[in-house]
Design brief:
The complex is a heterodimer of chains A (about 240) and B (about 675). Chain A has five helices and nine strands, in the order αβββββββββαααα. By secondary structure, chain A is α+β, with helices and mostly antiparallel strands. Chain A is elongated, with a radius of gyration of 24 Å. Chain B is an all-alpha fold. Chain B is built from 32 helices and six strands. The relative contact order of chain B is 0.08. The chains are: A alpha+beta (about 240), B mainly alpha (about 675).
C-alpha cells in the first residue's frame, strides 16, 4: 500500500512540474503599463535564406493615444510556419521599444510575425510584420543579383557600393517593384535578362546577359525577383520547376 | 469456484465437440489473417495518401494528378549512393509543380534544385532515415536511429559533401570554409576534404621567435588577457588565462626571444607633423590591407593585415622602422610588401603609426621581473595550449594533430558525444554550442573562446556538417574538386621582386595568390608596355569608387623595367595572337562608327566614362585613358567574350559581331590623353 502511495505521489509531482514548466513558457509578462498603438520601428521585409536568423532584429514600439512611447507594456509575438521569435514575449523598454530576433522557417515564402499588446480595457492591438525566406534557387538568384544587377537596379547607395541607378536615362526598376514587375510574365523577365532591354522594346542601357549567365542562373534571377516583389507575386505554378 | 466453472463452460462451448472447435479455430484464423491488411489500412503513410487524394479531387487538374499518383510504398533505391529512400510514400507530390500553392506538408511539391530527386534521393541532402515509413522515425532521432532531419539553416552543408569548390548558390558554406581556414581552426585540427586534400590555413600568424624586439611583456600580457581590447578584428581567440598564467606565458615568450638581424639600425628622421604622416599612409594605400577604427567606431580598410588602431601601444619604435624597411627580416612569410620608402617617408609613416596609442590598454598592467619557475611554467603552458600550432617559437616544435581530427565531424555519432547541460541532443546544436562556448563542455578543455557573430557560427557549423563519412564513399564522378593549391613561382630577378613586393598577397597568377586585385595570368597580352612601366612607378587607379587600391612601392626605374619585361613576356594568353590586330590600320571612319556603337547601340556609357563631362556610369572602370593601357588585340577579344579572358568578370558578353568589336576597338584605343574623338 505504501509503495502505491509513493508511486502516485511521484507521478503527481512529475506531472505538476512538467505542467508548471509549460505554463511558465506561455506566460505573458505582467504588463506595467498599457498602450494604444503598436508600430514597427525596423526589421520588417527582411530577406534571408530559409531557416536562417534574420540579420537585423525586429523592433516594435508601443505608443499611447497621444503617440508617446509607453515603457513596460507587454508584447507577445507569434510566427507561423516554423519561424521562431526570441524572446517570444517581453516588456517594452524605457524608449517604448522591444527588440526581438526572428528565425525563418524551413520553407521558402513569406512569414508573418504577429505582435500583440493590450490596451487598458484589455482589447488586443495587433501588428503584422512580414519577412521573406528564400529557397535554394531564389537564394542563388540573390547572389547573382548582388553581383550583376543591384549596381543599377538597387537605387540605394552605400559607402561600399555606390548605386549607378541615377546615372541612367531609363531608371531601372527595383526588383521589389511588384506593381510593375508582377505584370510581366516569367518568360518576359527572362527574355529581358537574356537578350537585353531592346528585346522587349526597352532601353538598351539594360545589356544582354544571355551569354554571361546560363539558363539556370537566369531562372534563379527570375525566381528571386518574384520572391521579393512587393506587393507579392502570385504565381500560377512553379514555372521553372524541373523535377 | 465460480470462475473455474465459467471457464469450463466457455471451454466446452468453444471446443466441446469437433464442429465447435473447427468453427472457433476458423474465426481465430480469419482474425489473424485480417491483422496485416488492417494494420496496413491504418498506417500513417496510407492515411496521408488518402488525404492527398481528397486534396486533389477538387482541383482543376485532378485527372492528371490522379493518374500520376502511385499508391502504396514508394522507394528510391540508388545502390551506388547507398540511398534507400521511402520519403515519397508520404511526400507524394514532390514533382507536382501545379501544387505550388499547397502549403500543408507532406503535400508540397519540392522547390527547384539543380539535382533531380530521382538521381540523388532525399536523405543525401535532408538527412533523416530514408527507409523509415513513420513520421517520427523518418524525421527525428529515435533509439534505433539517431540521424534526424537536417534543419533548413544548415542545408548548404549537404552541397558541400560533393562540392569542394565555391558555389554561387552556397554563400554560407563558402563563408564557413573560409572561416575554418582564416581563424586557425585547421592549424590545430586536421580537416581533410573527401578527396583527401588537407585544408590549409590562410592566415599567417606572426612568428614569436624575436617577439621581444617587437613589443613589451606588458603588451603581451594585456593581449593574452583580452585580444579584443586591443583589436576587435583580432583572429586570435581568447584562451581564458588567469593572471598568473598570462604572466608566466608572457615571461616565457620574452625569455625565448632571440635577436634578429636588421639591415639598418639607424633611427629614422624625426617625423614631421601628423597630417603629413597621414598622407603618406594614405598614398601608400596601407588601408588596402590594414584597417583602422575611425571616430565613429567603424573599421575602415582591408583585413589582410592586422588592425592598426592601437599599434603605437604595441610595437617598439626601432622595430617599426626596421619592419617598414624590410618586413621579411622579421617574418619571412609575411604578406607585407617591402615598400621602398626613403628615410623621410619612413619617418613620417612610423611617426604616424606610433601616435596611434591607447592609454587605457596597458594602464593596469604591472609585472615584476620573471622568475625561473614562472618561465618554466610559461613554457609548459605554451606546450599545453598548443601555441606552436599557429606561431613559430624557439625551442618548441609545431605539434602534430594537436586537436581532434574533424574530417568526419559532420557524421559524428551522437552516442559518442558528451553534451553540455542545456544543449539540444542533435549534432548541429552540439557543434554550434562547442564553437560558441567551448568551456561549457568542461573547464579543462583546450579549445579557446572565439568572438564570432551568430551568422559566423552558423557558417562554421555548416562547413563542419559537410564533412561526412558518407561523402568519402561517394562515387568519384560526383566529386567536384576545389581549387587546386598552386605553388607557382615566378622566375629570376623579376620573381624575386614579385616576392619582395608581395604581389601574390593581392594578385593571383597561374592559380596562386589573393583575389583582392585583378588576376595577372594574362596581363602580358592585355597591357601596353609604356602604360605598365609608368603604372608600376606610380599606380593611379582606374576605378575612382574603390577604397582599396594598388600601393606605390617606390620602385627604381630598373626594377620597374625588369618587372615590365617579365610580365609582358611571361604572362601571355594563348587565346589570341598579340599582333593579330594592328591599331595603325584603324581609320577615322572606324572610330566614328565605334563611337556610335558605344553611345547608341551598346550604351556603354551606362557603366563606363569616356567623356568625363557628360558620361556618368561608374560600374566599370573609367575609360578616358584606356587606349594608353590596353592593346588593340586584347580590347577586341575582350569585347568579343569578356569571360574568356577574365573569368568571372561581370561585363556582359554582348555577342558582338567582328565588325562591331573592331569598330569599338578602334574607338577605344584612340582614347589617349586628348579626348578629341569623344568631343567630335
Amino acid at each position: 500500500m505504501m509503495r502505491w502511495r509513493l508511486k502516485a505521489a511521484l507521478l503527481a509531482l512529475v506531472l505538476a512540474t512538467s505542467c508548471a514548466r509549460k505554463a511558465a513558457d506561455n506566460a505573458r509578462p505582467d504588463a506595467k503599463a498599457f498602450g494604444a498603438a503598436l508600430v514597427e520601428v525596423s526589421g520588417g521585409k527582411q530577406i534571408a535564406a530559409i531557416g536562417m536568423a534574420l540579420d537585423q532584429p525586429l523592433v516594435v514600439q508601443v505608443n499611447d493615444a497621444q503617440g508617446a512611447a509607453v515603457a513596460g507594456a507587454a508584447v507577445l509575438f507569434r510566427a507561423g510556419g516554423g519561424a521562431t521569435v526570441t524572446p517570444a514575449a517581453g516588456l517594452t523598454g524605457s524608449d517604448g521599444q522591444l527588440t526581438v530576433t526572428v528565425s525563418l522557417g524551413g520553407v521558402a515564402g513569406r512569414y508573418q510575425v504577429l505582435a500583440t499588446t493590450r490596451d487598458k480595457a484589455g482589447k488586443a492591438i495587433e501588428l503584422r510584420s512580414e519577412e521573406i525566406a528564400l529557397g535554394y534557387q531564389q537564394n542563388l538568384g540573390r547572389q547573382l543579383n548582388d553581383r550583376y544587377c543591384s549596381r543599377c537596379h538597387d537605387p540605394e547607395s552605400t559607402a561600399e557600393r555606390v548605386s549607378n541607378h541615377d546615372n541612367l536615362n531609363a531608371k531601372p526598376h527595383a526588383f521589389t517593384d511588384g506593381d510593375f514587375l508582377n505584370k510581366m510574365s516569367d518568360g518576359d523577365v527572362a527574355n529581358i535578362v537574356t537578350h537585353g532591354g531592346p528585346a522587349l522594346n526597352k532601353s538598351p542601357e539594360m545589356p544582354p546577359y544571355g551569354s554571361t549567365l546560363n539558363k539556370a542562373d537566369i531562372e534563379a534571377l527570375v525566381a528571386y525577383i518574384r520572391a521579393v516583389a512587393d506587393p507579392p507575386y502570385r504565381s500560377k505554378g512553379l514555372v521553372y520547376a524541373k523535377n | 469456484m465460480d470462475l473455474k466453472r465459467k471457464i469450463a463452460e466457455a471451454w466446452a462451448f468453444l471446443f466441446g465437440d469437433s464442429a465447435h472447435a473447427f468453427g472457433t479455430l476458423s474465426v481465430v484464423l480469419v482474425l489473424c489473417l485480417a491483422v496485416v491488411p488492417a494494420k496496413d489500412h491504418f498506417r500513417e503513410w496510407s492515411q496521408y495518401q488518402k488525404q492527398y487524394l481528397r486534396l486533389i479531387r477538387l482541383r482543376g487538374d485532378a485527372a492528371t494528378l490522379q493518374r500520376r499518383f502511385q499508391p502504396g510504398l514508394q522507394q528510391t533505391w540508388l545502390p551506388e549512393l547507398g540511398v534507400v529512400d521511402r520519403c515519397t510514400t508520404c511526400h507524394v507530390a514532390m514533382k507536382e509543380t501545379s501544387l505550388a500553392d499547397v502549403s500543408t506538408q507532406p503535400f508540397r511539391p519540392h522547390p527547384p534544385v539543380p539535382h533531380p530527386l530521382t538521381e540523388f534521393g532525399c536523405v543525401m541532402c535532408h538527412r533523416g532515415q530514408g527507409p523509415a515509413t513513420s513520421v517520427e522515425e523518418a524525421h527525428s532521432s529515435t533509439k534505433a536511429w539517431e540521424q534526424p532531419v537536417l534543419p533548413a539553416r544548415y542545408f548548404e552543408a549537404s552541397c558541400g559533401q560533393c562540392h569542394q569548390n565555391s558555389l554561387t548558390g552556397t554563400p554560407q558554406l563558402n563563408l564557413g570554409r573560409k572561416l575554418l581556414a582564416r581563424y586557425g581552426c585547421v592549424s590545430c585540427h586536421t580537416l581533410k576534404t573527401p578527396d583527401g586534400v588537407r585544408m590549409a590555413s590562410t592566415n599567417e600568424p606572426p612568428p614569436l621567435t624575436h617577439i621581444a624586439e617587437k613589443t613589451t611583456r606588458e603588451w603581451i600580457y594585456a593581449w593574452l588577457k583580452n585580444t579584443q581590447a586591443y583589436s576587435v578584428a583580432a583572429t586570435m581567440p581568447d584562451f581564458q588565462l588567469n593572471d598568473a598564467d598570462a604572466r608566466d606565458i608572457s615571461a616565457f615568450l620574452i625569455d625565448q626571444s632571440t635577436a634578429y638581424k636588421t639591415a639598418d639600425t639607424s633611427k629614422p628622421v624625426t617625423p614631421g607633423d601628423a597630417s603629413e604622416g597621414a598622407s603618406v599612409y594614405g598614398e601608400s594605400f596601407c588601408a588596402s590591407c590594414h584597417a583602422v577604427q575611425n571616430a565613429a567606431g567603424l573599421m575602415v580598410g582591408g583585413d589582410i593585415g592586422p588592425e592598426l588602431t592601437r599599434i603605437g601601444s604595441k610595437v617598439k619604435p626601432d622595430w617599426m622602422a626596421a619592419w617598414l624597411r624590410d618586413p621579411k627580416l622579421y617574418a619571412p612569410h609575411t604578406a607585407m610588401p617591402r615598400y621602398r620608402f626613403n628615410e623621410k617617408q619612413l619617418g613620417l609613416v612610423a611617426g604616424f603609426l606610433e601616435a596611434k596609442t591607447d592609454s587605457d590598454l596597458l594602464a593596469k598592467v604591472q609585472l615584476e621581473a620573471a622568475t625561473k619557475e614562472q618561465i618554466a611554467h610559461g613554457k609548459a603552458l605554451v606546450n599545453e595550449r598548443g601555441c606552436a600550432s599557429c606561431h613559430e617559437l624557439n625551442g618548441i616544435k609545431k605539434p602534430d594533430n594537436f586537436a581532434p581530427d574533424l574530417s568526419a565531424a559532420g557524421s559524428r555519432s551522437l552516442a559518442k558525444i558528451v553534451f553540455a547541460p542545456g544543449v539540444a541532443h542533435t549534432l548541429p546544436d552540439y557543434l554550434a554550442a562547442k564553437i560558441r562556448q567551448p568551456h561549457a563542455f568542461g573547464k579543462e578543455l583546450k579549445m579557446p573562446q572565439y568572438t564570432l557573430s551568430p551568422a559566423q557560427v552558423d557558417a562554421l557549423v555548416t562547413a563542419l556538417l559537410a564533412q561526412t563519412e558518407g561523402a568519402q564513399d561517394l562515387p568519384a564522378a560526383l566529386r567536384v574538386a576545389g581549387q587546386a593549391v598552386s605553388n607557382y613561382q615566378p622566375a629570376g630577378k623579376a620573381g624575386k621582386l614579385m616576392e619582395d613586393m608581395q604581389c601574390f598577397s593581392c594578385h593571383a597568377i597561374n592559380g596562386r595568390g589573393g583575389d583582392m586585385a585583378p588576376d595577372l595570368t594574362w596581363e602580358g597580352s592585355a597591357v601596353e608596355r609604356s602604360w605598365l612601366l609608368s603604372f608600376l612607378k606610380n599606380p593611379n587607379t582606374l576605378r575612382p569608387a574603390l577604397i582599396r587600391r594598388m600601393p606605390r612601392f617606390n620602385m627604381t626605374d630598373a626594377e620597374a623595367q625588369t618587372l615590365t619585361d617579365y610580365i609582358l613576356t611571361a604572362y601571355e594568353t594563348p587565346a589570341f595572337d598579340a599582333d593579330s590586330l594592328d591599331a595603325a590600320k584603324f581609320t577615322a571612319e572606324d572610330r566614328e562608327r565605334g563611337r556610335q556603337l558605344f553611345y547608341s547601340k551598346y550604351m556603354c556609357q551606362s557603366c563606363h566614362i569616356i567623356d568625363a563631362q557628360n558620361d556618368k556610369g561608374y560600374v566599370g572602370p573609367t575609360l578616358t585613358q584606356i587606349g594608353a593601357k590596353l592593346t588593340a588585340a586584347w580590347t577586341f577579344h575582350y569585347l568579343k567574350d569578356p569571360q574568356r579572358l577574365r573569368p568571372g568578370n561581370i561585363e556582359p558578353n554582348q555577342h558582338m559581331s567582328d565588325d562591331d568589336a573592331r569598330s569599338l576597338t578602334a574607338f577605344l584605343v584612340a582614347q589617349k590623353k586628348a579626348q578629341e574623338v569623344a568631343k567630335k
